[in-house]
Design brief:
This protein has 18 helices and 34 strands. The chain has a 9-stranded antiparallel sheet with strand order 1-9-10-11-12-19-16-15-14. Strands 2, 3, 4, 5, 6, 13, 17 and 18 form an 8-stranded antiparallel sheet that branches.
């Protein structure tokens, strides 16, 4: 193992050509998190373009009621009578003032730590932002480069706070905190809600109480949402700079410690541990390409603590930053890539056991509940992905004790599906296939809805649901046998489902129907859902049909960044996912490229052709994307039409996990010379 695997990460770095071009600099965003659901994010221009951009968004209302508590720290370097802004702001008037990005010489990610280098008038200042693992604490630090006898310099930093829901709009009369300064510390208190504490390395903070209004948020405007924001100016920090020494502050909802050197080392150690754990768990990562190690590090963003009564160590997965919470389907799809590939077996088990608490009538929640909320169970596939996640976990860990504990829950899932559960989800005894759907309800992963319009209802027997059902029955038979539980009924259900699955084959044999037995008959629309009948561990298709599925999906659907959700040429195809909320939702699954499908596509290719190296090459272009949009991350979606502009969440769990899992399994296949 190398002394420091962080040195092997693919570099993500930009010079003046990107940093000094506002559009290019704002297109690239940094996102960091603390493992509690809290996060920080922004652009490399240090301007705000989304309502979610902030220095600290924290789950003030557990488990995941996130509040934007600390918005910005606008710093100016003061030398004599000269003031140089180290930040940029966009205003509703159209002005961009100041233009601190023009002084940016470079930006790079040091592990997960965003790092800026400003250069002007012979002065160089480095800035870093990072979060404390396991605490609602963010650090903002600056370091002046140069000799000790350089002319004196100090920072003047305007501190901007808020108290709104991170999804919401600011209403200034609703945020009237008590603000108190004492030397290098500041407190911003909303009684019975939270106290933001800021502790600087030195100097003094002067309390303020005035609003900075009319920030312009161009990304929100492009998404058809309110595009203005305001933040409360709560204090001005004046802190002297000493060449070679970090100066700045910690901002926290707990007691902050302004020892920046120690905090920076803790963050670096945490990042290094993520990589070293993966390498120790599987030596294939010891020589992995730098972009793959970037994905390993990216997984850490999504894993969060989710304590429950009786399970204080509960854990879950944030589906995507900045706006998603934890979702059942997304969590189970992402779990192998986030946890098993990276050697986090205990985390995987805790996530699986956390979700076991919420299984009801054989179903897993689609959206995980907040405090006092009821779970939403409008999903036909989350419970099937749950069974597959357990299969993968037991295969990777050998943890038969956990399997014995959970097996009654898994058996109950099967029983409910056989006799019927919510939303018409039930096995059809005639063909052994799973029917799902009711009018007005979206149950598959293609779940967009605009008012009462379910864009892709897919009522009937969707192809991927039944590929998952067959895979689940085969997995249940194998897991039952492993712990000496009677497995005959699961094996029999798998046999019947495999026989029934032949009904999906198109009359010309060139691929599969997307849905059969729907209200309007079989749906031959060319969508990527059929790829799961080839990519899942157990396939219900013979090799000739597997080959046909791969062939028919390859040309129309495959792109560098994932599979299109609908083929060009289909009447409903939409090549751009942009505009108003309704326009975007209408295009969401009608041609938009989904990155999470890239992994299953590569695995399906390997199953058909048996060439792991060739299959891996389908994954490599995503390495280029790591330097775009959410830096070091993979976006949720991309336009269906070239150049496949990234859209949706800039950091999506199943996008990262799907690519990483596929690379890992294919690399293991290359090493072992066998099917994964």
């Amino acid at each position: 193992m190398p002394a420091n695997p962080l040195a092997r990460l693919a570099p993500i770095r930009f010079g003046r050509a990107v940093c000094g071009d506002l559009d290019a600099a704002e297109r690239r965003e940094w996102w960091i998190a603390n493992g509690l659901g809290g996060y920080a994010g922004g652009t490399i221009a240090l301007s705000l373009t989304r309502r979610y951009h902030a220095l600290l968004v924290a789950p003030v209302d557990p488990p995941l009621g996130r509040v934007l508590v600390f918005a910005k720290a606008d710093a100016r370097l003061i030398t004599g009578d000269r003031s140089q802004p180290l930040f940029t702001n966009r205003w509703a008037s159209g002005d961009v003032q100041p233009e601190g990005h023009l002084a940016l010489e470079s930006f790079h990610l040091d592990g997960t730590i965003p790092t800026w280098r400003f250069a002007f008038d012979g002065r160089v200042v480095e800035q870093r932002i990072w979060m404390e693992p396991g605490a609602d604490t963010v650090y903002v630090a600056w370091r002046l480069e140069g000799e000790a006898d350089m002319p004196a310099a100090h920072l003047s930093v305007a501190l901007l706070a808020n108290g709104r829901d991170h999804h919401g709009d600011t209403w200034p009369p609703g945020f009237t905190p008590q603000i108190a300064a004492d030397g290098p510390t500041l407190t911003v208190t909303i009684a019975n809600r939270f106290t933001l504490r800021i502790a600087a390395t030195g100097g003094a903070i002067v309390a303020r109480d005035d609003w900075y209004r009319d920030f312009d948020l161009p990304v929100e405007r492009a998404r058809g949402l309110a595009a203005r924001d305001a933040h409360l100016h709560v204090g001005d920090l004046g802190v002297p700079l000493t060449p070679g020494v970090w100066s700045g502050f910690a901002a926290s909802l707990v007691r902050p410690n302004a020892d920046l050197d120690a905090a920076l080392e803790r963050r670096r150690t945490h990042d290094r541990d993520v990589l070293e754990r993966a390498i120790a768990a599987d030596p294939v990562f010891a020589e992995a390409p730098g972009w793959v190690l970037r994905l390993v590090l990216a997984t850490d963003l999504f894993l969060i603590a989710r304590p429950l009564p009786g399970l204080s160590e509960g854990q879950s997965v944030i589906a995507g930053y900045p706006w998603f919470g934890d979702w059942g389907r997304d969590t189970m799809i992402a779990l192998p890539g986030l946890c098993l590939a990276t050697g986090r077996f205990d985390t995987a088990r805790l996530i699986l056991e956390t979700f076991a608490r919420f299984v009801d009538r054989g179903m897993l929640p689609n959206v995980f509940p907040g405090a006092g909320d009821s779970p939403d169970y409008n999903t036909a596939d989350a419970s099937l992905w749950y069974i597959e996640a357990w299969r993968a976990y037991v295969e990777a860990s050998g943890d038969e004790a956990a399997l014995r504990r959970v097996f009654p829950v898994l058996a109950e899932i099967v029983d409910w599906h056989v006799r019927g559960t919510r939303y018409g989800i039930a096995v059809d005894p005639a063909d052994g296939l799973l029917h799902a759907g009711e009018k007005g309800v979206q149950l598959t992963w293609m779940d967009a809805r605009v008012g009462d319009w379910v864009v892709t209802p897919r009522i009937g027997k969707p192809v991927e649901i039944n590929a998952l059902w067959y895979n689940a029955m085969a997995a249940m038979a194998a897991m039952a046998a492993r712990i000496d539980v009677r497995a005959e009924r699961y094996g029999a259900a798998a046999v019947k489902a495999r026989q029934g699955f032949s009904r999906f084959v198109l009359p010309d044999g060139d691929g599969l129907y997307d849905v059969i037995d729907g209200p309007d008959g079989p749906d031959p629309s060319l969508r990527p859902n059929q790829i799961f009948a080839v990519s899942l561990p157990e396939s219900p298709l013979d090799p000739a049909v597997q080959h046909a599925v791969l062939r028919c999906c390859g040309g129309p659907l495959a792109t560098s960044y994932g599979l299109r959700s609908l083929a060009p040429g289909e009447a409903a195809y939409c090549g751009r996912c942009r505009g108003t909320v309704s326009a975007r939702d209408g295009a969401y699954h009608q041609g938009t490229v989904w990155a999470w499908l890239l992994g299953p596509w590569a695995l399906a290719h390997y199953r058909v052709y048996g060439d792991a190296a060739t299959a891996q090459r389908f994954l490599e272009p995503i390495g280029d994307h790591l330097a775009d949009a959410g830096l070091g991350q993979i976006s949720e979606i991309f336009d269906g039409d070239p150049p496949h502009t990234p859209r949706g969440c800039p950091a999506q769990a199943w996008s990262v996990a799907g690519v990483l899992e596929a690379w890992w399994r294919l690399e293991r296949a290359k090493s072992a010379g066998k099917v994964v």
